[in-house]
Automatic annotation (TrEMBL):
Keywords in alphabetical order: Hydrolase, Metal-binding, Metalloprotease, Protease, Zinc
Species name: Sneathiella marina
Annotated protein name in UniProt: Peptidoglycan DD-metalloendopeptidase family protein
Superkingdom to which the source organism belongs: Bacteria
Presence of keyword Metal-binding: yes
Cellular compartments annotated: Cell envelope
Pfam families per the UniProt record, alphabetical: Csd3_N2, Peptidase_M23
Length: 451
């Protein structure tokens, strides 16, 4: 069996259920549930519950039959919680301190313990093989520690009897395939795509790609449709492990079709999305720097919701749940990031000589967003909140041109790169090939889920 299949099937998890090397004739029927390595995230609370359950099982295995001790191998999987170090995780799982120390020392050859993530699973294997079986309580010794750094990269410290722990790195070879999926939009693109089984990451990428051209608050009508052609990676058992880049996508809005192609320009090495004519879909600024929000108040005169008098509203408001990520509408430098009176937590970005954008009432700023920091278009800069003079969670968004606020929804945005010459010729060849590829791939309206 190839290594990839062994790891994918979870050999560490299977050992407990199948190996029971009893020394007596009638081994006691004590079994530990097999625990395959998991990728799914867990909350620390869930982890705590799991841990307690497993500890109970271990106690049964170790102490239930002191009269007939047997050699056992047991596996425990523990999720990393907030504030955990590898040492804390291992000792919480019942590993001896000095054994844990040796295992961690070996593991650091292939893994930086600072890369440990909350929710990450760590699998420990124990054995009573070399323990003193004449004693009532048998303390199993640590045999291996393994964790998945990525879905396709497993790292482990494995004990060789008499030689301590050695590091091991296993890279799974993933099969790449391209999937064509799509549907007719019912209520929102997000919901329809999610119902079709399209992974969340792909939907967000899709919205980002089209957000320069499509105003998702106003332009989507029931009956509009979309298609997306993207990468999926699976192991050799066919299990989907991750999703990759979108190669092509199309949206049909009120009968009008917009298609985009992923293309790398050889002259500068940048990969971007272009329309059929070779124009970059990227505009200097995005119209809507937030996903899944609804426009609650437009630009212009209105009666102020909290103060009652008529006032000029110099931005647009997007209602969204508290904590919804807010993106930088364009590349630029953060000019202000801090408390700003009625605006609450406020960020202003300078994009170029004439354009700036501002974002108000944030719950908090994203990591690293402070005065002077450089941000990229689409980068998360903060989260929706209701700080300052605000009646509920929403984003107040402003576009400034030449120092004056203008309507973000009607502003004519300067376009991005337009391919010409050799680059356009190469793009035409590429897009023609992609069109044929897509046409030869069956459209799926219900995908098998990967998350
Ligand atoms: Zn506002």
């Amino acid at each position: 069996m190839p290594v990839a299949a062994v790891l994918a099937g979870g050999i560490v998890g299977a050992v407990v259920a199948t190996t029971f090397m009893g020394s007596s004739n009638e081994p006691p029927e004590v079994k530990i549930a097999a625990q395959a390595p998991q990728i799914a995230e867990k909350t620390p609370e869930q982890d705590q519950v799991q841990l307690e359950e497993k500890q109970t099982n271990v106690a049964v295995a170790a102490y239930a039959q002191p009269q007939a001790p047997t050699v056992e191998e047991l596996t425990k999987t523990v999720s990393v919680g907030k504030g955990d170090t590898l040492m804390k995780v291992l000792t919480r799982a019942g590993a001896d301190r000095s054994e844990s120390h040796q295992a961690i020392a070996a593991l650091t050859e292939v893994f930086d313990p600072r890369d440990l993530k909350i929710g990450q699973d760590v699998t420990l294997q124990f054995s009573t093989d070399d323990a003193d079986l004449t004693k009532d309580s048998v303390v199993p010794s640590l045999m291996s520690v393994s964790l998945n750094e990525a879905v396709d990269r497993q790292l482990a410290a494995i004990r060789t009897p008499g030689a301590g722990f050695t590091a091991q790195e296993t890279v799974l070879e993933l099969d790449k395939s391209l999937v064509r999926a799509g549907g007719v939009i019912q209520n929102s693109l997000f919901l329809t795509a999610a119902q079709a089984g399209i992974p969340t990451k792909t939907i967000i990428d899709l919205i980002r790609i089209f957000s320069y051209d499509v105003d998702f608050q106003r332009e989507i009508q029931p009956g509009d449709s979309f298609e997306v052609y993207f990468e999926r990676f699976s192991d050799d058992t066919g299990r989907i492990l991750k999703d990759g880049a979108i190669h092509w996508a199309t949206m049909t809005l009120s009968g009008k079709e917009i298609s985009v192609y992923r293309f790398k320009t050889a002259d500068d090495g940048f990969t971007d999305y272009y329309d059929a004519k070779g124009r970059s879909v990227k505009k200097t600024l995005m119209r809507t720097p937030i996903d899944g929000a609804r426009l609650t108040s437009g630009f212009g005169k209105r009666k102020h919701p909290t103060l009652g008098y008529t006032k000029m509203h110099r931005g647009v408001d997007f209602g969204a749940r508290s904590g919804t990520p807010i993106m930088a509408a364009g590349n630029g430098v953060v000019e202000v990031a801090g408390r700003n009176g009625g605006y609450g937590n406020y960020v202003r970005i300078r994009h170029n000589g004439s354009y700036k954008t501002a974002y108000a009432h944030m719950k908090k700023f994203a990591k690293g967003v402070r005065k002077g920091s450089r941000v990229k278009q689409g980068q998360i800069i903060g989260y929706v909140g209701t700080t300052g003079r605000s009646t509920g969670p929403h984003l107040h968004y402003e576009v400034h041109r030449g120092g004056k606020q203008i309507n973000p929804l009607s502003v004519k945005l300067p376009a991005g790169r337009k391919l010409g010459g050799k680059m356009l010729t190469a793009f035409r060849e590429h897009s023609k090939k992609l069109n044929t590829e897509v046409a030869n791939t069956a459209l799926e309206t219900q995908l098998a889920s990967s998350d």
